[in-house]
Specification:
With 336 residues, the protein is an alpha/beta fold. The chain contains eleven helices and 13 strands. The protein starts with a strand and ends in a 7-residue tail after the last helix. It binds nicotinamide-adenine-dinucleotide (NAD) and UDP-4-deoxy-4-formamido-beta-L-arabinopyranose. The site of UDP-4-deoxy-4-formamido-beta-L-arabinopyranose has 18 residues, from helix 7 and strand 8.
Length: 336
């Protein structure tokens, strides 16, 4: 298939492109590089030994989208492009609605114009709000989402569902990611946050390289195995293969799948796994709970296992080793 990958220069996009090309697909990438760099795609080209058609452009620019669809026969779209900082979305909600919802509306319009019926969308476990664990797709989403970021994901899901209902030949899939960590085993591509990382794994790896002094663990008084927050960490390469599976098993209608490991891991457990698998000691201190954090969530992954024939193959220890290889070999990310 010839696949348009929006946001393909980003963390999950780059890893997914490697999986797509390794499995015989071709890709075209559009990314405005607002949260990524050209170098990430150059490295994907190096890993896959291919040249990737790339458009440095914004999805909100309809004319540019038209040019891309005109030039390339697109069979399917994987839609990663969007803003993803939860805190920032609370400070500037309108920007998040413009970037995330607005871009998706443009994309749907051009897909309709060029008769492209297959789409895989990057959704998030955040659409469940606070649901009973494990999170299962049949649980009603959208009820108590706390951030505008999360609401954009839920709104996009609703739009996709409505559009799919209007045309029986449409095949739309939302993948609800849990907590992606890890990096490609080559150490050439990985997560490259700008500024101080919000997420746990990049913070840990930057403490390990001594770019940051110590990790602050946000709360140790939750009702969890050891009092720290529990999440479902999934290796980004497993997440990437989930996209391949979603395309391979794409079917008419609108479908939603959780992509997680199915296991909960606490902050302290992840920290220990990192120390054991990399030999790096991570100093930490206990800090107050972070506002908006849930105590515990992890995925029920039976639906993706059975309908997409997809399983994770990597452990949290594999992800720790791969994140560390990426960070230690590229302490400044993609900056040379
Ligand atoms: P990322 O920021 O690394 O990648 C997103 C890419 O989209 C970036 O390269 C950015 O430059 C590009 N982009 C943003 N707005 C654009 C626009 N208007 N036009 C063109 N390009 C644009 O993020 P990621 O971690 O790779 O996440 C990919 C997707 O998965 C996002 O939609 C994110 O919300 C979703 N997601 C991520 C996580 C996570 O923890 N990383 C979890 C759940 C869902
Ligand atoms: C994981 C655990 C923290 C940093 C966020 C978004 C979510 C999704 C993924 C896009 C929690 C603890 C963290 C630190 C810590 N993104 N922690 N010290 O909050 O589960 O999810 O990223 O869709 O929408 O909200 O991920 O990595 O920030 O936190 O103790 O410095 O680590 O409290 O328990 P989170 P995270």
């Amino acid at each position: 298939m010839n696949i348009l990958v929006t946001g393909g220069a980003g963390y999950i996009g780059t890893h997914t492109i490697v999986a797509l090309i390794s499995n015989g697909h071709s890709v075209v990438v559009i990314d405005n590089l607002i949260n990524s760099s050209r170098e990430s795609l150059r490295r994907v080209e190096e890993i896959t030994d291919t040249t990737i058609p790339f458009y440095e452009a914004d999805l909100r620019d309809y004319d540019t989208l038209g040019g891309i669809f005109n030039e390339h026969p697109i069979d399917a779209v994987i839609h990663f492009a969007g803003l993803k900082a939860v805190g920032e979305s609370t400070e500037n909600p309108a920007r998040y609605y413009r970037f995330n919802v607005g871009s998706t509306l443009n994309l749907l319009k051009i897909m309709n114009e060029y008769n492209v019926k297959k789409l895989v969308f990057s959704s998030s476990a955040t659409v469940y709000g606070s649901a009973p664990v494990p999170y299962v797709e049949s649980h009603p989403a959208g009820r108590d989402i706390t951030s505008p970021y999360g609401k954009t994901k839920y709104m996009i899901e609703e739009i996709l569902s409505d559009v799919a209902m209007s045309d029986s030949s449409i095949e739309f899939t939302s993948l609800r990611y849990f907590n992606p960590i890890g990096a490609h085993e080559s150490g050439r591509i990985g997560e490259n946050p700008t500024g101080t990382p919000n997420n746990l794994m990049p913070y840990i790896t930057q403490v390990a390289t001594k770019q940051r002094e110590s990790l602050r663990i946000w709360g140790d008084d939750y009702d969890t195995v050891d009092g720290t927050g529990v999440r479902d960490y999934i290796h980004v390469s497993d997440l990437a293969s989930g996209h391949l599976a979603a395309l391979t098993h794409s079917k008419p209608g609108y479908h939603v799948y959780n992509l997680g490991s199915g296991k909960g891991t606490s902050v302290l457990e992840l920290l220990r796994a990192f120390e054991v698998s990399t030999g790096q000691k991570i100093p930490y201190e206990i800090a107050p709970r972070r506002p908006g954090d849930l105590p515990e969530f992890y995925a029920d992954v039976h639906l993706a296992n059975s309908e997409l024939n997809w399983q994770t193959t990597k452990t949290v220890e594999d992800a720790c080793r791969d994140s560390w290889r990426w960070q230690s070999e590229n302490p400044n990310g993609y900056e040379q």
